[in-house]
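Researcher: Go.
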Amino acid sequence: MSNIKINYKSFNFIKIENIFLFSSNKPGKKVCVLGGIHGNEIAGIEAIKNIIKNFKIENGEVCFIICNEKAIQENKRYIEEDLNRCFLKNKSYTNSYEENLAKELKEIISQFDICLDIHNSTTKNTEPFVICEKNAYNLLDSINAEKVVSNFDNLEPGGTDYYMNSINKIGLCVECGYFKDKKSILFAENLIINFLKKTNNIKLNYIKYTKKKYFLLNEVYIPKTDFKLYKQFNDFEELKKNQIIGKDGNNLVYSSFNSVILFAKDINNNTQEAFLLAKKIDNIKIIRIDKDNYEIYKDGFIKIYKEIFSQAPYYEIFSDEEVEKIYQLSKLETTVTLVALDDDNVIGLALGIKLSTHIDTDFKLLLKNHFNLDKTFYNAELAVLAKYRGQGIGNELIKKRIKFAEKMGYNIICMRTKEEGSMSMSLYKKLDFKLLNGVKSISKTKKINIDDEDIRVILYKRLANKT
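Model: Structure:
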């Protein structure tokens, strides 16, 4: 065991006594494990105490921290404010005990590659589950929890996982069961050890838990006055749209969509969330636009097309009329327009056309000597709303588009993308797309305030068409 080196800043710190750093003096992952962010959640606190007694490290560094000492001593969630909301980059200044504690913790955990934050739920009969974003998905098979919830960084930021993700590290939180259930301690111990085997800090084979169900956080309800639940809800209990959840003052509160509920509790003030609503990812369906549903999804297509492509990294501007012309391509039998739907709301789109119908004459001339334009399918557009990204929706849109191209008798499917710094390049190469060597295309775009153009390369894939 060794002392951790921290470059302290000039502000006053609250001393954290229980920091335990194990260094192998060998290369490897640097992992930080936290317990006691909430003082009344026993799993992480007791698990760390038990593990450090006989812990042996093989590679890298592992740091265990028991965080909120005062709250732990008083068996309270927090002293002045929720520590799990104090890791925001632009947090309003309060000078609270927890705010100053978070400053010190940030100085420590920022020195590590991965932060595993151990929690308990306040909901009875809850089962363990994971809170993380896509950057942690490759670690999930080491965690014996089936359910995974993402999008907390967007809708419920301020925890250690959010902070680590914001500095391009990896943060994840595991809820280990009910906070009064002592069985959650053993679960947390096994979890931490298996996780550290996965990161190779302990050189033993880890147990793989591959079965997962993914959920997307969609709503955080903060009451306006005192909030009272209509009934006690289990974590992940399914709700129908417009089902009664509780009462905010004199007003009934209903679920706004078919969902599952998390962390539901009575609230005596309006500073905390009363419940969260999430949606199972496989509730999202993908359909092809045809003459029967053309009008139903037109407005949704136009809306998200403009929204997504006006943002980074595109910064392109389109009028409703311009996007509608693109959408009208759906009427052609040779075109495939797909939309991803969440409760019938368009949240993603993909468009593919026969290359010979492309409006860019120079682009078609460029490829004429390489492909039969009438037998080549061109991947034109792919977009998913920001809060739904990282859930595999874009990948499913791509795969379904390829299947349609095969069924329609196309021999080649192609696309163009930026030569450098393109996520599309790596994504499509994983799907066996190849680079068309020596061929580059100029793509003209209408960005905000300027007309722009950039150099694109061509990727293609030969299809086993099924006609």
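Model: The CA atoms of residues 334 and 354 lie 6 Å apart.
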